[in-house]
Amino acid sequence: AMSDDLVHQDGPSPDDPFLKDLQENARRLHSQSIKERTRGVVEIGQIAWISNDVIQTHISSSGILKDLVDLLEKPVEPITVKVRIVQSVSVICRNNRINENVARELGLIEILARLLDDVSEELRDWSCHALFFLISENPMNQERLLKSPKIMEKLGKVSHDNWSTWFQNEAHELSKILEFVNEVAHGPPVPSPTPSPAPPILATATATSTTPSVTLSSSTGALPLLASTQGEAPLCSLPRPCSGRGWG
Asked: pTM for the complete prediction?
């Protein structure tokens, strides 16, 4: 059961024009038809996009968000449907702290992190997009994602996907945010000590005979001070992200 503080908000008016459509499409999620389930998923995302905060929050408080997450976890669900679910979830949680927190309680962050290993590039990339919204200005969600096994390694791999049709490389941006958050929480990484360079070997000529010989001696002078460069913490604020490729 969800905590009361996660879902408490006055519900939509029975006369709200979006409510009937939302309820109708929520029923489609349980259809045996892939086409009908897909239609329900897409319509719910579009309702969340064009409606209002009350309807958006009602999607989580009424259990519709849980139905979407349950559908996403089904191994037999086609990739095309899962991509649509992740797209809709990213809209449902966009700029809505209540829905972000409910998503965390439903385990959505861990599910999306696992999908970063999926064979489908489209599903990997949209999962990054959804995670970007889930952790934006939400410290608890940031902490949860940081605890996900090998998350930075996964994001590093996904950052090499083809992001040319997106506004930005979402995997790369997500990595920067997590690095910044981790540094704030635990301090910058301690750089490995750099060994001092060996003193230069100088050639010294001695005139002990008519044919000069050359001996090698170490300079006893002070070694030059080398400037070392240490990585500065990335200047990364956490604004609300824009939508990657838009809704559609």
From this structure: 0.74
Q: Is the pLDDT of residue 133 over 50?
A: yes
174 to each of 69, 177, 189, 225, 248, how far by Cα in Å?
Answer: 22, 5, 19, 38, 22
C-alpha span between 168 and 116 (Å, rounded): 17
For residues 216, 218, 221 and 227, what is the CA-based torsion angle, rounded to 10 degrees? Answer: 110
- Helices 121-135 and 151-158: crossing angle, nearest 10°? 130
- Taking the C-alpha atoms of 73, 77, 79 and 80 in order, what is their torsion angle to the nearest 10 degrees? -120
What is the token pair recorded at 174? 């997500």
Residue 202's pLDDT band (boundaries 50, 70, 90)? low
CA nearest to 42, candidates 100, 95, 105, 92: 92
Q: What is the distance between the alpha carbons of residues 109 and 72, in angstroms, rounded to a whole number?
A: 12
What is the tens place of the pLDDT at every residue in 60-85?
Answer: 999 999 999 999 999 999 999 999 99
Rg of the chain in Å (alpha carbons): 28
Q: What is the pLDDT of residue 13?
A: 86
CA gap 95, 91 in Å, rounded: 9
